[in-house]
Each structure stands twice: as C-alpha cells, then as structure tokens.
Design brief:
single chain, alpha+beta, six-stranded mixed β-sheet
C-alpha cells in the first residue's frame, strides 16, 4: 500500500490529531518522506479495512541494513481494545522478516502509554528505564529480534 492511497488518509489524519493533542504543534507526520515507506526503499505500509473503513494500520522503513523501524502504528478510536494493534504489529513483523530484517526498532512518546503497553505485550524490549518519570526520559525506544523468514 502506498502512503498516498485513500485508505491511508484516515490513519494519517487521526495520527496528526493525536500527536497534536498530546504534544502540541509538531512536525512528526512530515518528518519522513513517503518513499521511505515503500518496498523499493526497504519499507512497507499496511492498513486494515473493515466494511469499507480504515480501522488500523502501520508502517516501517529501513533503519539500517538489518533493522526495520516501526512507525505510524494506529487504531481508529472507535476500534481500540479489539487487538487490532497486535494484528498490525505482527503483520509488519512478518513483512520485515520477509524483507530480510533481523531486528525491529521503534520509539514512542512519553505521553503514549497505550503504545508502550502494546509493544511490551508483543515482546518488545524497552531500551529505557521503565521506572523513570516518562516525561524526563524523552522518546521511549524498544527493540525486538525477529527470526529469519523461511
């Protein structure tokens, strides 16, 4: 799926709103060029569509030769608590493995405890002190080693 596909628009618009409401004005959604999320550049973008509506999605891009970096993980507010975030993360992991990556890296912000909970529950190792005040830690990095695709 391409970043400019119509099914992606609800994800991007809601993430922009979410980041702005939690952190104030920011440039997160324009930080990375769209082509970084394409297979040609070592990335992928996926969305889950239910009854013609985008309900969840996410992406990754090449962080380094062996590492994919997850970005844009999102679930529509009306569809949260259904396990869709887990579905998105698992499918992105499978695609990263298919593309030959051995590790996944990601960061989430200190005001996104739901995201940190998702990554912890799906086997990601936090690369920061979980006991520290979230606001003083800054971005919360995580990693996961993934098996090679067969």
């Amino acid at each position: 799926m391409a970043v400019r596909d119509p099914e992606v628009r609800p994800l991007l618009e809601d993430l922009h709103h979410e980041y702005t409401s939690r952190y104030g004005p920011n440039e997160e959604m324009s930080r990375y060029p769209d082509e970084r999320f394409t297979p040609e550049h070592g990335g992928a973008f996926l969305v889950l569509v239910e009854h013609g509506r985008t309900v969840a999605g996410g992406a990754f891009f090449r962080h380094d030769e062996e590492t994919a970096e997850l970005k844009r993980i999102w679930t529509h507010p009306d569809h949260r608590r259904r396990g869709l975030g887990v579905v998105v993360v698992r499918e992105l992991e499978r695609e990263a493995a298919r593309q030959g990556y051995r590790r996944i890296y990601l960061t989430t912000g200190p005001r996104q405890p739901e995201a940190a909970g998702l990554y912890l529950s799906t086997g990601y190792t936090p690369l920061y002190d979980l006991g520290a005040d979230p606001e003083t830690v800054g971005p919360h990095p995580f990693e996961k080693i993934i098996p090679r695709s067969r």
